[in-house]
Write a structure and sequence with these properties.
Blueprint: H1 12-16, E1 19-26, E2 33-36, E3 45-52, E4 59-65, E5 73-80, E6 85-93, E7 96-101, E8 112-119, E9 128-137, E10 143-152, E11 161-165, E12 174-180
Antiparallel strand pairs: 1-12, 2-11, 3-8, 3-12, 4-7, 4-11, 5-6, 5-10, 8-9, 9-10
């Protein structure tokens, strides 16, 4: 007898085997940036997963594609902390914010986690779309969730991602890049 519904229609072995590890980074406690370079054009999309513990109480995590520092990025985001919500956007900025890390005075021992998708990164005929979901929990003093999306206004294929942060990232924080295979 067949099982009906969404679960029955999924091929979970295909879903889990569609992600391949490309590169990873482990925080070393210093301020700065790091780059995943020589990204192969053999995947449909890219996905970044992170668990970052800031060593200070507030900051943000950003990305630049192919080293582009010009105002070629647009973004919008929503942030909610359980008592209030806010929205922000920018039509032309020099980076793509991916997450606010433990903002608002949060204790730096709670990780900020998130998943970022870079859609059609290898295309040379359209702008690149980025979407991110991230958040943190600060135990008894609250937490937040953030949804961001935006675009890089370039038709160049993405071959490198430079991530930077405006705080120190504690040792043991992890950031991993995956390639998503096509159907």
């Amino acid at each position: 007898m067949p099982i009906l519904g969404i679960i029955a229609s999924q091929d979970y072995t295909r879903i889990t085997s569609s992600y391949e590890s490309i590169a990873s980074y482990t925080g070393n406690g210093s301020t700065g940036s790091f780059t995943f370079s020589s990204i192969p054009a053999t995947y449909s999309h890219l996905q970044l997963r992170f668990a970052i513990v800031p060593s200070t109480a507030a900051g943000a995590f950003y990305v630049r594609l192919n080293g582009d520092t010009a105002a070629n990025y647009s973004r919008h985001g929503l942030l909610g902390n359980g008592t209030a919500a806010s929205a922000a956007g920018a039509a032309s900025t020099s980076n793509m914010p991916l997450s606010i890390m433990s903002a608002g005075g949060a204790v730096a021992t709670y990780p900020s986690v998130g998943i970022v998708d870079l859609i059609d990164y290898a295309s040379t005929t359209k702008y690149k779309t980025i979407r991110a979901i991230s958040g943190y929990d600060n135990n008894s003093t609250g937490g937040a969730i953030e949804l961001d999306s935006g675009s890089w206004r370039s038709t160049s294929a993405v071959t490198s991602l430079t991530f930077y942060y405006d705080y120190n990232v504690a040792t043991g924080s992890t950031i991993a890049l995956y390639g998503i295979k096509g159907a």
